[in-house]
Amino acid sequence: MGQHPEALQHLLHRSERLVLVPHVRPDGDAVGSMLGLADVLEGQGKQVLRLLQGEVPPLYRFLPGSERTQTGLESLERFVTAASPGETAVVALDCGDASRLGVYAERLLGHHPLAVIDHHRSNGGFGDICWVEPDRSSTGEMVYDLISALGWPISTAAACCLYTAIITDTGSFRYETTSPHTFAVAGQLLTAGVRPEEVANRIFDTSSLGRLLLLQLALGTLRLDCGGRVASIEVSRGMYAAAGATQHDTEDFVNWPRSLASVEVCVFCREVEEEEGTVSVSLRAKGGCDVAAVAALFGGGGHRNAAGFRQRNVQLAGMRERVVGEVVGRLQQQ
């Protein structure tokens, strides 16, 4: 467990107005970290803007404070200009690269002070204060430690958000970055009032029929390569309509082929609903292949065992072949 910068503590302590922003297309860690920290900051009498590029993913709308998120550059400008220059601090959460700030990147990179809290190994560092610990289980775990260092209380609502951040980014405490400290933090969050069975039910046991039908179609595209060491699946734009689902329903699809005993790496390619010609790729591994390095070749990043990227002006089938080919080549060299 590393040490958070004192400068970050001082920034949060002295700032009365803060903008919290996670990476574009946020996952459970990004949303949970933002909402949990926002709740604690407001408990200290601070004004907080919870800024997203789009809506909160449906899977995480049960989290306290999710209904208070705002979107758009207009919301950002209105909040920032309501105070004197330099009075509003920005904190980017779970954002592994400046480009992951999406449409807000140019505006926020020019704002000071800008702090970053992240655990992606691919993070090269940006902002005025940058706290990155790649060996952490999640950004949610880091946020908990920061709040504890400040001596601020954590409400049940904030605890629920941070617990969600941790449980989603650790795959329910299954991934290699899960540490004794991760379990200790989770225990403290339960002491703060989290009901683990309720959170698990919300995340893992509330699938729609459309999601299950889409999963059925996706698994129908399953292919094994490299003697069963590499699995890949895909979802096309037509599948969303056929199943009565949306791209939000593909959350966690990549882990189904990964569960096969022989599989070391899984590749999940899907066409992006709102961007024709754009393909999103998720990669998962079991330790034998650094998928963050694979993602980096295509302009993405992430962790050794979980990474991803997007490519524009490409075909789904061609993108799948290129990524699978890259993964197979790396495994064959081992």
Write a brief caption for the model.
The chain has 334 residues and is an alpha/beta fold. It is built from 13 helices and twelve strands. The protein is globular.
Descriptive terms for the model:
13 helices; 2 domains; alpha/beta; 6-stranded mixed sheet; 40% helix; 334 residues; 6-stranded parallel sheet
SSE order and pairing:
Blueprint: H1 6-14, E1 17-22, H2 28-43, E2 47-52, E3 70-71, H3 73-81, E4 88-93, H4 105-109, E5 114-118, E6 129-132, H5 139-150, H6 156-169, H7 180-191, H8 196-204, H9 209-219, E7 223-225, E8 230-235, H10 237-243, H11 255-258, E9 265-271, E10 279-285, H12 291-297, E11 301-302, E12 306-311, H13 316-332
Parallel strand pairs: 1-2, 1-4, 2-3, 4-5, 5-6, 8-9
Antiparallel strand pairs: 7-8, 9-10, 10-12, 11-12
Helix pairs in contact: 2-5, 2-6, 5-6, 6-7, 9-10
What report would you give on this structure?
Helix 2 runs parallel beside helix 5 and helix 2 (28-43) packs antiparallel against helix 6. The chain is of the alpha/beta class and 334 residues long. It starts with 5 loop residues before the first helix and ends with a helix. The chain has 13 helices and twelve strands. The radius of gyration is 20 Å and the shape is globular. A six-stranded parallel sheet has the order 3-2-1-4-5-6, sandwiched between helices. The mean pLDDT is 95. It folds into two domains: 6-204, inorganic pyrophosphatase (n-terminal core) (Alpha-Beta Complex); 210-332, Diaminopimelate Epimerase, Chain A, domain 1 (Roll), CATH 3.10.310. It is 40% helix and 18% strand.
